[in-house]
Amino acid sequence: MKLGLMPRRGRKTGSAGCLGSRVSYDAQKATLNLLGMTLTEVVLDEERSGRLGSRTGVVVLVVDATRDAYLGGVRNGDVVAEVNSVRITRLQDLKRVLQEQDPHDPIFMFLLAGTGWRFVNLSFISSLP
């Protein structure tokens, strides 16, 4: 299976930051960890770019099969199109939505997978300390 995704170049580097206790952002690696999944910003291939209407996107690099994201239906290679009805094309968009998120409210994600579109409902509840 060919993903056709290319990592973005020219990232600013910096120290790791934190968005609460359940979400972490590593500026040096340009990744965001959320509920057992690691996401990064990529330049999309022509097909996905056309379907999403953007040259850049946020892709799920890896999902821990024992954590909330996997149990909610997120899989490796999924491209995040929307979170809580907000269009996501960059990690910054996702960080902004999550910063405004009440940890007790579910996260609604609209994903583009290899087989088509998928809607998932994730919650921070099981990850709360």
Describe the structure concisely for a colleague.
The protein has 129 residues and is of the alpha+beta class. The chain has helices at 46-52, 68-72, 91-99, and strands at residues 6-7, 17-19, 23-26, 31-34, 37-43, 56-63, 79-83, 86-87, 107-113, 116-122.
What would your notes on this structure say?
With 129 residues, the chain is of the alpha+beta class. It has a single domain, classed as Roll (Pdz3 Domain), CATH 2.30.42. The protein is 16% helix and 38% strand. It has three helices and ten strands. The protein has helices spanning 46-52, 68-72, 91-99; strands at 6-7, 17-19, 23-26, 31-34, 37-43, 56-63, 79-83, 86-87, 107-113, 116-122. Strands 1, 2, 3, 4, 5, 6, 7, 8, 9 and 10 form a ten-stranded antiparallel sheet that branches. Strand 3 (23-26) and strand 4 (31-34) form a beta hairpin. The radius of gyration is 14 Å and the shape is globular. It starts with 5 loop residues before the first strand and ends in a 7-residue tail after the last strand.
